[in-house]
Amino acid sequence: DQQVKQNSPSLSVQEGRISILNCDYTNSMFDYFLWYKKYPAEGPTFLISISSIKDKNEDGRFTVFLNKSAKHLSLHIVPSQPGDSAVYFCAAYDSGTYKYIFGTGTRLKVLA
Amino acid sequence: SAVISQKPSRDICQRGTSLTIQCQVDSQVTMMFWYRQQPGQSLTLIATANQGSEATYESGFVIDKFPISRPNLTFSTLTVSNMSPEDSSIYLCSVGQGMRTEAFFGQGTRLTVV
Predict the structure, then answer these.
(1) Interface test with A, best of B37, B42, B93 (most A CBs within 10 A)
(2) B-chain residues within 8 Å CB-CB of A101?
């Protein structure tokens, strides 16, 4: 049973435009959400996070939105740059078990 | 943030053999996690390793196949035992401090079993 889902395996966006990556979760007990970026042959790199008591967190070009009622979060990258091309993983932190649950990832390709 | 050194970065192993992956952190951390990422798949948690206690394994993973050591707060090893081609995967070490903070990852070990 996949508790964290990223339904789009891939996304292509033109340089300078907005990239929107989506993530859905099923467990309402998750109280902290994270996005990671992964390049080939490297480990995932932490990008941005959001607490469940907030609905938005912004860091430079990256903004994460959380809709708790819909159990949905999204990562916005604006403007998108070719260096943003990577696989993006959504993750949920379960403070009851201290575990991070990851989605299946979305491969973003930013076209120059 | 924590700097995590994981080695080897890759290996090609014969079936039936074992490989031990090392994870060294530049600071003391409470929780260490071992993940597996099979081709095209998500990161799947194998086990959680806390210093001074037995590792806690997730469903589908057993200690005989994936023994873990956690001798101190900066180091852990994962052994993949009696390997088969199905064990070909990327294995990732991760650390966290709990309490709703981000986890950090090593660069991963790409294992190919032939």
Answers:
(1) B42
(2) 45
CA Rg value for chain A: 13
Instruction: Say which of A41, A95, A103 has its CB closest to residue B100.
Output: A95
Q: How confident is the model at residue A46 (pLDDT cuts 50, 70, 90)?
A: very high
Q: In the predicted model, is pLDDT for residue A32 greater than 70?
A: yes
Candidates B43, B48, B106; nearest CB to A89: B43
| Model confidence pLDDT, tens digit, residues A67-94 | 999 999 999 999 999 999 999 999 999 8
Buried b / exposed e over A83-98, threshold 16 CB at 10 Å, is ebbbbbbbbbbbeeeb
